[in-house]
Amino acid sequence: MSFIELQNVYKIYKNGVTAIADADLKIKKGDFVFVIGHTACGKSTLIKMLYREEKPTKGNVFVGGINVAKLKNSKVYKLRRKIGIVFQDYKLLPKMTAYENVAFVLESYGYKATEIKPKVIEALARVGLKEKLRSFPDEMSGGEQQRVCIARAIVNKPKVLVCDEPTGNLDPETSKEIMKVIEDINKEMGTTIIMATHDKDIVNRMKKRVVVIENGCIVGDYEKGSYKVDEAH
Amino acid sequence: MKPIRILGRSISSAFKSVVRNFSLSVASISCIIITLIIVSFAILLSVNVNNFTKSIESDLTIVVFAKEGTVKENVDTLKKEIDSIPNVVDIEYKSKEDLKNEMKRENETYKNIIDKWGDEVNPLPDSFIITVEKIEDIKETASTIQNLEHVDAVRYGEGVVENLVDVFGIIRNITIVAVIALIFVTAFLISNTIKITIYSRKNEIDIMRLVGTSNTVIRLPFLFEGLFLGVIGSIIPVLCTIYGYVLLYDKMGGVLFTDIMPLISPYNFVFKVSGVLIIIGALVGMYGSYKSVRKYLKI
Ligand SMILES: Nc1ncnc2c1ncn2[C@@H]1O[C@H](COP(=O)(O)OP(=O)(O)OP(=O)(O)O)[C@@H](O)[C@H]1O
Ligand SMILES: [Mg+2]
Is the interface score ipTM higher than 0.90? Predict the structure, then answer.
């Protein structure tokens, strides 16, 4: 079994919308995969099923050997400790500094204060925020806030990082910088990356594996660099 | 070590939350204070009423006078007959000589009169003093004794005593009901406070869930918060109980209006009541927050 594997997965929301239909997907450890498609095609739904924010209606979702579809609510936290999540809207706590926003994750796991400090500094250094430890979110730019979000996602050294439009709120220049950070994490830490995005430039330029979704179905799966933007549009 | 660290962090987070939501905390602490003061009053009252009842009951005896001129053998038979009544726990025989001596000792006037009778004359009757087991049945027991041979008269605190005991029983039941009702009101208020803190920290809780914080760790601070509110709210009622009761006891000279209602002595008693108040505060606080956590923190 692959590191991440979807088998015959369906997601039908309570209102009757079929967001994902018959999805099969295998992702190896250390892969970098873009998930693209028009708005409302089901990208976020697919991503959310990986960290069990949504439960598949049918089928199996495996992440690092855990069957996410069968996971009990009370055990979801174990899965999430293995997955880093990067959000479009960063989801930082406004009353905490950059340092505290990252540290509180490890605190909530019950780590020792002396263990926490070096890990947090390392994570913030990796995203290039070593100088901004004491800044609050409202004192930082969008790009900096996204870096804090990424630092928080990687501080526990997860095997996989899932990103739902991490550059959705950023200008092209800042987006490039953020993508550089994510690519470095993939290369240097060996973290598997799954990223949903709208940004054609990024997808074309970075030449990674691309999964195309249309109306909830996986309609294309292109190996590294073989995807060209006009094929899907 | 890890559980201890998690516990420590939960406690400090709960404490911060109490301070941060100051006005809300003050509101629920005030409610707890009022409730616990009433609870304290109810406990003090009902325990004392219990004590009055017991003290009256233990003092309550039936006095039986034998007919004048009953011979010694018949007095002995009468004693056996009374003793065999199931509700009778103790019977004390007082001969007419005992009674005569007792009255002589009681005061000068009696002594002068009795001395005039001389040694041979004694118009007083032989008597028995009887303690009963069940005070409710005292009337029945008295009439059984009245029907025995050689009995002249039977006396006990007819009416008054029974009524007093009934009234005490009613007071006790009312306070118990009031205490239970108040405890529920307080639990509801606390659960409401915790609900609001949960909502005010919804953002934080959502993020904690996403980054893999366990449910226990998410819930603990709220449980501690309820516990804190309860314990903090019990401080003033405890002080009121200790100082108030000691003052009352001293001012009233250890009884409530009359000697038949002796107050329980404050030492130890007030500390026990205080302990109960703190425990009630803590339990009600935790129960209130537990309810909210169950309802609004479905994870
Ligand atoms: N919680 C929900 N309840 C009901 N329907 C939902 C829910 N979330 C998403 N949907 C529906 O499922 C479909 C897929 O939504 P999804 O958010 O996965 O799309 P998306 O590809 O991420 O879109 P976008 O690119 O705009 O972010 C849409 O039709 C959406 O309306
Ligand atoms: Mg989306």
Answer: yes
